[in-house]
Amino acid sequence: MAQGFHWLIVVLVFAQFLVGSYAHDLPVSLLRLKLLTLHKSIGVTAFALVLLRLAWRFYSPAPPLPVHMLTWQRRLAHVSHALLYALLLVIPIIGWISSSASNLTVRWFFLFNLPDLVGPDPALAKSAKELHMALAWTLLGVASLHAAAAFWHELIVKDGVLRRMLPFGGEERP
Amino acid sequence: MRYLCLCLILCAGAAHADCWKPVPSPKSLVFSASQAGAPFPGEFKSYTASLCLDPKDAARNRLEVQVDVGSVDTGLPEMDDALKGEDFFDQPRWPQAKFISDSLKQVSPGRYSVTGKLTVRGVTKPVTVPFSFAPAADGKQARLEAKLTLKRLDYGIGQGEWGDTQWVGDPVDLVFSVNFVPADR
Asked: Phi first, then psi: what are they for A130, rounded to 5°?
């Protein structure tokens, strides 16, 4: 369950990077409207999945880290995981603020509208959008560190930490 | 301005007509379009209007409105620029939208119905708009409230790809909520 959420969120966030950065560079056009609407709909979905995964984590805590890990490694792991969750929750909210400030109500896949968080405000829209993008790049950085650590566990330490996160690698749980 | 002068002349000729001019204020001429199924509101900040009502001779009643389409404000600067461009209002070519009444009748106390020609982006179509107009007791101020729904594509607002009504809705609601003062006579 936790693995399923994890990989689904990875796929959605990756799509968000592609769609968001491509649409950002387009002039005002129907394609831009379509892509940004898709970006917002995926963003709402990913946000909900992150909340669900956190709830699941609370209900079914993650297995402990391997005993051989040093204190600084444990700290780094905890901090980076907390940072990943924080960014995954904050980035869509900042995007939502940016969209509201741009006078563009967020609509989820043509089904329902999200309430506007703020009124139209071009200056706020601009700074929120810049923050949204800066945090997205930060997320990419932390996620890269996270992935590098996973490969370090798999290839150097060989403690099965990566394998226990794979959808069908459950038997490796320590 | 030309129309305002024209009306002033006409109104001066009409002994009993009371003519009014608007006091433009924020959010007095707003519209609500839609994007991706969600509302997309905005307003026009610059317009002129002239309303003349003759209690004795309805044939002398007159309403004229001119809107500077370049004053469109959606709170999204890049969209405002796009709206002024060729695909939407084509402001360099058609800087103003105009309404000129053909007939204006009172339907009940404080309630009127005006029929006239609306010209937007070079396209003229007949429209009928019910509105309320209520002068204050001192006669120094009056409030006009009107609502109408237009189809933007009737006027070519949205050329080419912007004709896609799933993503950019065809109906656009217009709401006028304007304070008028007596025009100088």
From this structure: -65, -40
- The partner residues of A155 in beta bridges, in order of sequence, read none
Q: In chain A, how many domains are there?
A: 1
Confidence grade of residue B14 (pLDDT, cut at 50, 70, 90): very low
From the list B77, B78, B162, the residue facing A30 with the nearest CB is B162
User: Of A28, A37, A107, which is closest to B79 when you measure between CB atoms?
Assistant: A28
Q: What is the mean pLDDT of chain A?
A: 91
A104 in B contact zone (CB under 8 Å) = yes
B169/A contact by beta carbon, under 8 A: no
ipTM: 0.79
- Tell me whether B114 touches chain A (CB under 8 Å): no
Q: Residue B125: give its domain's CATH number.
A: 2.40.128.110
What local confidence, expressed as pLDDT, does residue B13 receive? 46
Is the whole-model pTM more than 0.90? no
Structural domain of residue B53, as residue ranges?
Answer: 2-24+43-145+178-182
* SS3 assignment, position B25: coil
Domains of chain B: total = 1
Which one-letter amino acid corresponds to residue A161?
V
Residue B112: name the closest of B55, B38, B160 by CA. Answer: B55
